[in-house]
Amino acid sequence: MTGSAIKLADLDFCYPGGEPMHFSTTFEAGSFTGLIGPSGSGKTTLINLIAGFEEPSSGSVLFDGIDATATQPADRPVTMVFQDNNLFAHLDVFTNVALGISPALDLSDDDKTSIAGALEETGLSGLEKRLPRELSGGQRQRVAIARALVRNRPVLLLDEPFAALGPALRRDMLRLVSTIHKQRGMTVILVSHDPADVKFAAGHAAFLDAGQVVANRPVDALFSASDIPGLQGYLGT
Questions:
Q1: pLDDT tens profile 92-131
Q2: Around Cβ 66, how many Cβ atoms within 10 Å?
Q3: What angle (nearest 5°) sits at the alpha carbon of residue 34, between those of residues 217 and 16?
Q4: Is 20 helix (H, G, I), strand (E, B) or coil?
């Protein structure tokens, strides 16, 4: 699998009664970008626009140069992992992952092999029959990631999926995502409230403020920059 390039071309969006947002930026194919910025800066809105969960009032979302602005979420080359892992409490690990392939659970032998591979890739082999309540918080997020992997989409969006985890476990999950990114070549975008997570895992970082992408650069270049409005105040430096 190779990742898709993503271009946000003059996207305008506004929640009822909210401040207008305007996004223009590009995420290179196969890149791993962390989104940082103050609360309310538009990080989750940006990835929801990419995924198709929100609709812009103007502008375009393009994947590999193809306009997908009017395309439904299920038809976009995207899969998403949320902070709330959205697992079904009454279904075991295998079945929760299988739903990523077929909501009707109509699985071929190849599908079952793909599920087994995703479980192994995320360190869940041997836990197939456990229910979510029998798993740790990190294991539940691994199930959500495995479900995303079996969808086999070139773009992986992560909306603060590890925010509720402790520092050590969060680093373990970031290592897992980084390894998957390197092995699969997916385009990964991670929303994080902690700049240290982005420094640790991502190759690029985008700083958002007041509903705009103020800068999108390689990680080291962004965090060492002195010419990005609002960044130093956000970082507390």
A1: 999 999 998 988 888 999 999 999 999 998 889 999 999 9
A2: 11
A3: 105
A4: coil
The answer to whether the beta carbons of residues 182 and 105 sit under 8 Å apart is: no
> CB neighbours (10 Å) of residue 103?
8
Whole-prediction pTM: 0.91
Q: What does each C-alpha distance from 101 to 47, 96, 131, 156 come to in angstroms? A: 22, 10, 19, 15
Q: C-alpha distances in angstroms, 235 versus 13, 119, 162, 190, 228?
A: 26, 37, 20, 18, 12
Dig out the tokens for 164 from the structure: 């509720």
Query: 229: how many CB neighbours lie within 10 A of its CB?
Result: 12
Q: Collect all residues with Cβ–Cβ distance below 8 Å to 118 and sequence separation of at least 6.
A: 97, 146, 147, 149, 150
Q: How far is CA 204 from CA 20, 58, 168, 177, in A?
A: 25, 26, 22, 15
